[in-house]
């Protein structure tokens, strides 16, 4: 699905590529929808791991932490563009199918939870506090990253995307945080 898109990810195509039987697929997953839920969980986990794995220098400030996380995510995006395109495709497809709509909600709840953890960890590591509720800021961060992801998938301009993320972090931190006293 990362390579050929969501529509190409039929259970028959998946088992053919995996070299397994359809019965084996259904032993692991009750349905394709269950596989898609697991896919969301794993991809969001990879995204968060990429953002969290970024090296942050000793004594770094809040903006430095968030810039490092953004750079880590951008490296992930460059390595796994098909996975990120699939996630966008999956969200939009799920919104059109009432049976799958909960999957899109689950996907964005997972993004928001990951952003919440990232913001809380960055604040704790730097002694900063957020002026607005972290869940609200996490939703804003998800919207920023979604826009940057979509734009990068269209133009593949890493330098421009990095510059936009750097500027967004600067504005985000200046507007919404303060150092602990």
TrEMBL record:
Q: Provide the residue ranges listed under DNA-binding region in this record.
A: 10-29
Endpoints of the signal sequence: none
Q: Please provide the record's keywords in A-Z order.
A: DNA-binding, Transcription, Transcription regulation
* Any one GO MF annotation of this record: transcription cis-regulatory region binding
Residues covered by the HTH tetR-type domain:
1-47
* InterPro entries for this protein: Homeodomain-like_sf (IPR009057), HTH-type_TetR-like_transc_reg (IPR050109), HTH_TetR (IPR001647), Tet_transcr_reg_TetR-rel_C_sf (IPR036271), TetR_C_31 (IPR041583)
Q: Which domain of life is it from?
A: Bacteria
Full protein name: Transcriptional regulator, TetR family
């Amino acid at each position: 699905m990362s390579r050929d898109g969501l529509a190409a990810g039929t259970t028959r195509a998946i088992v053919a590529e995996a070299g397994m039987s359809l019965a084996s697929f259904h032993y692991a997953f009750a349905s394709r929808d269950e596989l898609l839920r697991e896919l969301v969980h794993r991809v969001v986990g990879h995204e968060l791991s990429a953002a969290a794995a970024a090296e942050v220098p000793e004594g770094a400030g809040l903006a430095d932490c968030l810039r490092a996380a953004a750079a880590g995510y951008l490296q992930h995006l460059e390595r796994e563009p098909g996975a990120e395109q699939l996630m966008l495709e999956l969200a939009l497809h799920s919104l059109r199918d009432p049976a799958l709509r909960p999957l899109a909600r689950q996907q964005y709840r997972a993004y928001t939870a990951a952003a919440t953890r990232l913001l809380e960890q960055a604040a704790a590591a730097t002694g900063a506090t957020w002026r607005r509720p972290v869940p609200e800021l996490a939703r804003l961060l998800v919207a920023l990253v979604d826009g940057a992801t979509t734009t990068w998938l269209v133009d593949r301009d890493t330098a421009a995307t990095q510059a936009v993320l750097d500027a967004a972090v600067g504005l985000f931190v200046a507007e919404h945080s303060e150092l602990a006293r």
